[in-house]
Design a protein that fits this description.
Helices cover 58% and strands 2% of the residues. By secondary structure, it is mainly α. The longest helix has 29 residues, at 252-280.
Length: 407
């Protein structure tokens, strides 16, 4: 009992102190995010990078331990190598290939990882295996249709880095997903007809709660909208993933598999979402509400001066990206940790480390991630429901078709 209490106390103190560092996988998750933050790099391309890092780490670990099947099988097995050295080296090589300007951050993290691995032949063989795996992953994704153009630079929202030109969004609609067969594999049916009762319901909910001058939205709802910026949505899931992994003391191969599945699922959500968005080209609430007199629906009253609390994104509304990520993340997490893992998390704001938000569980965070898109005035409720279903189906497909137990 005393030992159990000590372990719990140590964990709580670690959480209170700041970002939790655990095994080599969670350490490099933090490092990859730090590197991309320093490079002012986020959104779709950041999800791709994190998927590459974690798939490479999972393949590297299983090249040594052979616990789970590998994404790529071209690298020879290395049972006599260090799995930790292989994983750290794989992550290092992926990041160096994309962020040479952040070499100091990457090499400092690598030195810390390798210091924990005893010197000897196993360490050297782990380095070789990690280098080979990273090279294979880089080659596999070289023509995946998600490379970053030269005009990728920040926009006005602090801490959020997205392309300044819409073509990159459309490019992702044609990109190569992870494991899935094609971008439209889980494309939903069309959004509600403008003259439907469902559309009127969603129109009026967003108009009432999501306007910049709304009197129906509570102060707590407004605070939630302001915290859950585009950058903080995936940031929340990564924080929860790291802390759950530490709390449950996952073995290395299980940790590597979990993060690989989670990050492939998140990367796929951008591809699946852009496919659907640019198929249907559905209008955002700000356009819809300012034109409520021309939608053919008597239950939608126009407000020509309506503006949303959140800035409206520069791409179509249907379905919701935030909801697809939530649906995917929940399915992956529950497949590893069981239904509704009950654990409190502290999410540190991506742009300002002095701003934090407490959530009681991943389910509470999931609900907030969806609701804030209505409370912020940039989505309709049905788009959240449809997006969540898309993410759930995509994640279930990944679990069923990749990184399966070997024995």
């Amino acid at each position: 009992m005393k030992r159990a209490f000590s372990l719990v106390l140590a964990f709580l103190l670690a959480v209170a102190a700041g970002p939790v560092r655990g095994d080599v996988v969670t350490d490099w998750n933090l490092t990859a995010i730090d590197v991309m933050k320093a490079a002012r790099f986020g959104g779709n391309p950041a999800a791709r990078t994190l998927a590459m890092v974690h798939v490479a780490m999972s393949d590297a670990v299983n090249t040594v331990q052979n616990r789970y099947t590998r994404y790529l099988t071209t690298v020879p097995m290395a049972a006599d190598a260090s799995a930790e050295a292989a994983a750290a080296t794989a992550a290092r090589q992926i990041l160096l290939a994309q962020f040479a300007a952040q070499k100091n951050i990457i090499e400092d993290a690598y030195a810390r990882s390798m210091k924990a691995v005893p010197d000897g032949p196993a360490k050297a063989r782990g380095v070789t295996a990690g280098e080979q795996v990273a090279a294979a992953v880089i080659a596999d994704r070289a023509s995946d249709g998600t490379t970053v153009p030269d005009d990728y630079r920040p926009v006005t929202t602090p801490g959020v880095w997205i392309p300044t030109t819409p073509p990159l969004f459309a490019q992702y609609a044609r990109a190569k997903p992870w494991v899935m067969n094609r971008p439209d594999q889980f494309r939903p049916g069309p959004p509600p007809a403008l003259n439907s009762a469902l559309y009127a319901r969603d129109y009026n909910e967003t108009k009432n709660l999501g306007g910049a001058r709304s009197t129906a939205r509570t102060a707590a709802q407004t605070d939630a909208v302001k915290f859950w910026t585009q950058a903080n949505l995936p940031n929340g899931w990564h924080t929860a993933a790291r802390e759950l992994t530490l709390a449950r003391n996952l073995p290395l191969a299980d940790s590597a598999r979990f993060f690989a599945l989670l990050n492939m699922a998140i990367a796929n959500t951008f591809i699946n979402d852009w496919d659907a968005k640019f198929t249907y080209n559905y209008w955002r609430p700000v356009t819809a509400i300012r034109n409520g007199d021309v939608d053919g629906n008597d239950a939608t009253e126009r407000d020509a001066g309506w503006t949303s609390l959140n800035d409206t994104p520069m791409h179509p509304e249907y379905p919701s990206q935030a909801a697809i990520i939530s649906g995917a993340a929940i399915v992956i997490m529950e497949s590893v940790f069981g239904p509704k893992p009950a654990m409190r998390f502290t999410i540190v704001d991506f742009a300002d480390p002095n701003v934090k938000r407490e959530v009681a569980s991943i389910n509470e965070m999931d609900l907030e991630h969806r609701n804030v898109r209505v409370w912020g005035g940039i989505h309709f409720r049905n788009s959240l429901d449809v997006g969540y279903d898309m993410g759930s189906k995509g994640a279930a497909y990944l679990i069923e078709n990749s990184i399966k137990p070997v024995r």
